[in-house]
Amino acid sequence: MSDAPPSNFTPAPMDSSKRTWLITSSCVGAAGAAALATPFVTSFAPSERAKAAGAAVEVDIAGLKPGEKLTVEWRGKPVWIMRRTPEQMAALKGIDGQLADPGSERTAFPTPEYARNEARARAEHPELLVVVGICTHLGCSPVDKFQTGAQPSLPDDWKGGFFCPCHGSTFDLSGRVFKNKPAPDNLEVPPYVYLSDSKLLIGEDKKQA
């Protein structure tokens, strides 16, 4: 038996008060849905979107002690900031002949002009290394090998640096790659500038007026 109304069926007119109630209920429901959606939209805060798009990142380095390293994120990449000790700075000398690109002149990962030096750092704070912690070979993350001397997979005269466990590339404490390694280039130096002795801005290399 069919539930369809007969062909001559005419719907009863809706009471005006009932029509008003339905409209009001619909509006309240829509408002409630919008309210529920608000936290979801807010979770995509502009700062997060900006960081993903490559916005500059300000870092407080006041508490960074000699020999310590911290990692921050910029453009989805890990950026290492390391305050090298006087001994670690001295270890950078006299090894140019062992390095593939001691002057950071290669252009696959261009080094800013102000970091094309032995320390690969700005003159204001030569002891502070700022590099992207991603191997230039296949994108693995090198590990810290600050201890000097003979160690597995490292030369007997190792002076400290970084080691990529994926394919064995080694980098000195300035992020410069050693010769005859899979990595084709030094670790990338991002644009950066000092806002003060305790504040570093990664992603821009000029102070705003």
Explain what this protein looks like in three dimensions:
It is a single chain. Helices cover about 20% and strands about 20% of the residues. The chain is of the alpha+beta class and about 210 residues long. The protein folds into two domains: about 35 residues; about 150 residues, Rieske [2Fe-2S] iron-sulphur domain (Rieske Iron-sulfur Protein, 3-layer Sandwich). The strands form three sheets. It has a three-stranded antiparallel beta sheet with strand order 1-9-8, with no helix packed on it. The chain has a three-stranded antiparallel beta sheet with strand order 2-3-4, with no helix packed on it.
Shape: globular
Largest sheet, described in full? Answer: 3 strands, antiparallel
CATH homologous superfamily placement of the largest domain? Rieske [2Fe-2S] iron-sulphur domain
- Per DSSP, the total helix count is 3
- Going by CATH, the architecture of the largest domain would be 3-layer Sandwich
Topology readout:
Blueprint: H1 16-42, H2 46-53, E1 57-60, E2 69-74, E3 77-83, H3 86-90, E4 128-132, E5 143-145, E6 161-163, E7 170-171, E8 192-196, E9 199-202
Antiparallel strand pairs: 1-9, 2-3, 3-4, 5-6, 6-7, 8-9
State the gist of this model.
The chain is α+β, with helices and mostly antiparallel strands. Helix content is 19%, strand content 19%. The protein has 2 domains: 16-51; 54-202, Rieske Iron-sulfur Protein (3-layer Sandwich).
What keywords describe this structure?
3 helices; single chain; 209 residues; 19% strand; 2 domains; alpha+beta; 3-stranded antiparallel beta sheet; Rieske Iron-sulfur Protein
